[in-house]
Every structure is written in C-alpha cells, then in structure tokens.
Amino acid sequence: MIHINHDHTLTLENKILLMQEDARFDVADPQLSYGTTQSEDESIPDPSMFQDIHAAQAPPKVPKIFLSNKCIFNCAYCGCRASRDTDQRYCNTPSELAEIALQQAKDNGHGIFITSAIYQNANYTEEIIIETLRILRKELFYNGYIHAKIMPGTDPHLIEKAGQYANRLSVNIEVAQNAGYERVAKQKNKENILVPMQHISNLVRNAKQYKSNGNPILAKSQTTQLMAGSTEETDRTIMNLSKALYKKYNLSRVYYTAFQYVQEAKGYELPFTSTPLWRTKRLYQADRLLQLYGFTPEEITPDKVPNLTESMDPKMGWALRNIHLFPVEVNTADYEQLLRIPGIGLTFAQKIIRARRYGKVTHQTLRRIGVVLKKSTYFITCNGKYEGGDILSHPELLHQMFTEDSSSKEK
Ligand code: SF4
Q1: How remote is the CA of residue 168 from the centroid of ligand 1, in Å?
Q2: What is the CATH number of domain 12-223?
C-alpha cells in the first residue's frame, strides 16, 4: 500500500515549474527538457555539431516528469539533494503523476520520461513509479513511449515490473571513477548502480523468455548518464568506461553531462569547480566516433593527448595526428576509410559508395551529392586529382585553419 505525505501547498503549475528546474540535473534521454527547447538545456547536444560526425536528425523531445524532488541522497551537483535548503519540495501520488504524464504526452506527442529523486528509499520510490506506469497503461490506456528511471539499489523484481510497462529503462552511473562517488555522490556506489544495470541488461536480452513465462516485457533498451569532471579523470578514462558499458550492459546510449556545482552542498569537501560545458559536446562527438565510426578510445584520446580539446573536434584531431594516411582516394577507399575523412559523415560516405556504382567520382560529383568540400578537399583525391595545393606538406597550416575559435562559439 503506497502512502504519500502529500504537500497541498504547491499547485500543479508550481510543481511543473519545479520539475523543469529538476530536469536540468539529469539528461538520460536524447530528447528531454520538460517544456524547454533543446538549446536551452546545456547538457543536450546540439545536432549541428554532428554535421561531420553524425548525420542524425534532431531527436524529438520527451517531457520529463518527476515523482518527487525530495531526495534522501545528497549528491553535490543535484538540486534535489537532501541538504538543499528549500521549502519547495513535492511528491505526487501515482494517480496525479499519471495524469500529469498523460497530459504532457498528449501535448508533446513523443512520449514521456518518468523519473524521481529517491523518496524515502529506492524500492519505495520505484514502487510508486511502477504504480504510475500501471495506471498509465491499464487505466488511462496510454500506449506511447515511456522511459522510466530505475533508482540506484532497486531490487530485481521491481526492475522486472517496471520493464513490463516502460519501453526504456535507465540507471545513472554518474561518475567515471569510483573515487567520484565519495567526492560528489556519497550515498551512491558502484554496486548500487551496476547491479541494477546488469538486471536491466538481462531483462532486455531475455525479454522473450519472460514473455513465455506470462509476463511480457516491453523494455527494449537501456541508457545511462555519465558526468564529466567529478574527479580529475581524463576523457580517455571516460571513453574507456563508455566502451565497456556499451559492451557489457548492451546500452543504447551513454549520455554525458558536465559536473556543475551551483549551490552550496553540505557534507562535502569544498571547493568544487564546475566542468566547462564544451567538454560534454566533445564527449558526445567522441562517443559517436566510437559507436558509429569504428574509432577506438586510443585513437580518439591517445596516451600523449588523453583529453579532448575545446578548439578542435575529435575527428579532425585524429586526422591531423595521422596526416600520413591522407589523401584518401574516394574511388577506391572502403566505407571505413571514407568515414575517417574530415567533412564526410555517415550519410555522405554511403552516398559516395552509391555514386561509385555509376562511374568515377569527381569533385563535381561530390558537390552534386551535397558534400561540403570546405574541410574534406584537403584530405581526398578524386580519380587522382587533388585540389588542396601543397597543404599536406604543411600540416601546421591545416591545424590553424581548423582550430575553432572558442570565443565566438557557444560554450
Ligand atoms: S540520487 Fe542524487 S542525483 Fe539522484 S535525485 Fe537524489 S540527490 Fe539528485
């Protein structure tokens, strides 16, 4: 039986405004941002930065609905933490939350993300989330997309129940090194996060088996959120961890945030330094290089340069460190080689392969199929022809040309 101390002093509108604020601390969905535009959420990648690296379209936004912002944990970076001095705490009942979620789903049209701070304890919070999911599916007959958050330390039987109603589940790993938990999220640890992550992975992998036991599993994927800058970890450490997580837990996506310290957090060793937001942008780019382009963490962040830089995208950085591999002949290069050419992403690599079926690819062909040669022209030959002058003998000039001016860009 779920019993909630209901705060009647906050109106629905007040709660929704507070949910918008709480959503800034957690991005584990491509879409998010409850009621905000994508560009207003610093943690969400701007699709324009993937022009070269990932030709995906901007994902739709999914509103994020909070059960509660009253947390028993005290993570230094989070506005829901126990030690935060605020009287603006709320906890919805499952019926209220389901009604809010349904309304938001109708308004938004792309689904909903149901999450929460840890209210009283992990299992209790998860039970309320599950009851909300049940009401949505069984009483309100909502058939759209639901992403549900799993609390750290949740018992396997509750994860299974959540998986019967939600399409996607996630538990946030948060930090890149164990030391990070003690530093910024004292009540979290590797075990209370990785054990649920393993259960979600098993659930998703063995969905058919659960189905045959009479409990259909809807959950098809899991994601996580990883924060940069909670310790002095390098980007190479983050890339290695992401690679391991994708492999071991079959994650659909790792989402990156930058550690931000906004208001005083009691119980921590201060001072904290916030991580610059450009780091998240570079991590998203590096992540796509790992997942879609066949790069390894060692290639993106080699021993001598273990950190991504603000001034250059990681693919260009790799190309300039490996200038001896260029120019690449677009008529004979295989798909993987084409993907490594600066300025050519997934879509154009595929278009080039298709264009080769109908004859030799020239610079004119590339222009016709839409390749912007501003970058790629220095790294390719078309049927033996090179249009980049003698710049490959002067890589330092390429370096200057493709160094991004951080002062003129959004950070
Ligand atoms: S567990 Fe930590 S990050 Fe999650 S809501 Fe509570 S304080 Fe915030």
Answers
A1: 20
A2: 3.20.20.70
Tokens standing for 270? Answer: 């201060």
User: E strand or H helix at 147, and its extent?
Assistant: strand 146-149
- In the sheet that holds 112-115, the strands lie side by side as 64-66, 112-115, 146-149, 168-170, 221-228, 253-258
Q: In this predicted model, what pLDDT tens digit does every residue of 200-247 receive, in sequence order? A: 999 999 988 887 777 799 999 999 999 999 999 999 999 999 999 999
> What is the pLDDT averaged over residues 75-93?
89
CA of 107 to the centre of ligand 1 (A): 28
Q: Which atom of ligand 1 is nearest to the CA of 69?
A: 5
pLDDT at residue number 22: 66
pTM comes to 0.86
Atom of ligand 1 nearest to the CA of 117: 5
**DSSP code of residue 276:** P
| 37 pLDDT tier (thresholds 50, 70, 90) | very low
Burial category of 243 from C-beta neighbours within 10 Å (exposed 0-12, middle 13-18, buried 19 and up): middle
User: Is the CB of residue 300 below 6 angstroms from any atom belonging to ligand 1?
Assistant: no
User: How far, in Å, from the CA of 346 to the mean position of ligand 1?
Assistant: 37
Asked if pLDDT for residue 84 goes beyond 50, the answer is yes
Which of 21, 74, 81, when mutated, tests ligand 1's pocket best, judged by the most ligand atoms within 8 Å of its CB? 81
Q: Is 197 in the pocket of ligand 1 (CB under 6 A)?
A: no
Instruction: Domain ranges for the chain, please list them.
Output: 12-223, 314-408
